[in-house]
Amino acid sequence: MLPLLPLLLYRRLSHTRSPHIMSLSTPAEQTQFGELLVKALPLVLECFPLPVDARLRAREVSRGWRALLNQPRFWLVLDFSAGSGVVARLTRALLFAAGERGRGHLHTLDLTGT
Amino acid sequence: MRTAHLAQFATAHGQSLRSVTAPEGLQFSADEVTRLCHSAPLCTLRCRVYCSAAEALPLLRCEAPCALLHVVKLEAGGFDNNEQTVLDLAAALPAHRGKIKGFIVYQASLENVAVADALMRGVAEAGVSDVSFNNCLLTPASVPGLAPASLPGLTQLLQSDCLERLSIFNRMQVLFEEGPDLTAFCHALRSSTLQKLELKSCQLWLRPAAAGELLAALLGHQTLQDLTLLDYKTDDARRAAGEQLASLFTHTSALQKLDLQFNSLGDACLAPIFDALPRANILKELIFSESWSNETISREFARDVILPAVRANMSLRRLSFVGLGFFKDPLPELLEAQAIVAARTQPDAGAIAAA
Q: Is there a domain that residue B147 lies in?
């Protein structure tokens, strides 16, 4: 269940009108909950990184996601190995797009699953 | 994904990269590896390399700029009958900093016993698990009556306990002859942890007694899953060869694949094999070649022996008569036998409709 957490969050936060957020009683509570998620999400993503292709797609969801995933710390490792969860076929464009996000910080490239 | 793409990537990100593991299907030449290591000087590169033996030496020794290179699989050729190159390669293999999993040698001069032994020892010391000798002539050229000299080296390799896959293509030279060397080899084979054995063009059936001793060593083998015996001519020993091969089904606990292409087996040899097939409950793949055999499978044999045996067997998932219909019209019975086995791996149409 835990490794699926970022994916669930990704799906949940991809919808702007989340029922959980809307069910909170006051706007202040909603704001606090939103801030908490914004603070917690990077930690969750660091502990349980999204697959590379999902990370690239998540950047297109909103400006918030783009700003978050523009941080180089999410692009230190490009893992395309068999257990990485990457479903897209590895192409030169995909590899270079992911590499561009981590320019100057990219540390590890694993292509064993391709 | 091609090697050129990875080289471009390394050029773009070489300063920060510390670890690159290339796809297993991608082969790098020595030049490409050197350029890649030059672009990313602090990066550990794990990859498969295909080059001449002379080019492989600096890579195995991790000479600059390849100080952090890890050759996962090495395919080396271009020995040019130079025994010193083989000796140098043998010495460089265990010295490599990373673990070499696969080692394929093409056309190395291994007629000299000392050279062959040195290479086997190097391979064993390096702990290589997947070894292939292609066109290496693992037999002294013309020493009638003497035991083939390569066997002690191969025995040593088997005894190293790291070997999982062994493949030999021996340019139609006899590799196995009766004698103490073969007995020692068979003993090592019996107690080895080999999972895959390929003996191609080793003239196995020219020495029926030696073939028998070898196959007897495989009976009851605990780990062998994949056996390929690719050879020509069984002549007088056909029935005996068939019985020995058939006993592998019933006495070997792990054998899942048996490849008998190009063996010219014929009905006489195939009869014991298909008699035993219903009792083979682990075997998943069985491969023959039909069109190459001088004495092809008769229609009666296909109808009365092959088809009932295939129907009675429940474990097979692939049955192939390679080249069926290539030179003449295929026997419908053989096509049906292939179809029966193929149907076992097809999704059930009824189940799909119900879902």
A: no
Percent of chain A as helix, strand, coil, to the nearest 5: 60, 5, 35
Per-state percent for chain B, helix, strand, coil, to nearest 5: 45, 15, 40
CA atoms of B141 and B173, how far apart (whole Å): 8
In a domain, B118, yes or no: no
The whole domain housing B268 covers: 249-355
Domain extents for chain A? Answer: 2-110
CB proximity A110 to B under 8 Å = yes
Q: Which two tokens stand for residue A114?
A: 């391709």
Specify if B15 maps to a domain.
Answer: no
B304 lies in some domain: yes
DSSP B12-56: HHTTT--EEE--TT-EE-HHHHHHHHHHSTT-EEEEEEEEEHHHH
Contact list in B for residue A81 (CB cut-off 8 A) is: 21
Cβ atoms B27, B48 nearer than 8 A: yes
Q: Is A97 an 8 Å CB contact of chain B?
A: no
Instruction: Specify which of B30-39, B143-152, B288-297 reaches the highest per-range mean pLDDT.
Output: B30-39
Q: Tally the domains of chain B.
A: 1
Q: B30-39 and B53-60 are packed helices; what angle lies between their axes, rounded to 10 degrees? A: 30
At B140-174, the pLDDT tens digits run 444 554 445 688 889 989 998 889 999 999 888 88
Is B1 in contact with A81 (Cβ distance < 8 A)?
no
Q: Does B7 touch chain A (CB under 8 A)?
A: no
**Which residues have a Cβ under 8 Å from the Cβ of A90 and sit 6 or more positions away?**
A80, A111, A114, B1
Question: With a cut of 0.85, is the ipTM above it?
Answer: no
User: Is A107 in contact with B17 (Cβ distance < 8 A)?
Assistant: yes
Query: How far does the CA of residue B120 sit from the closest CA of chain A (Å)?
Result: 29
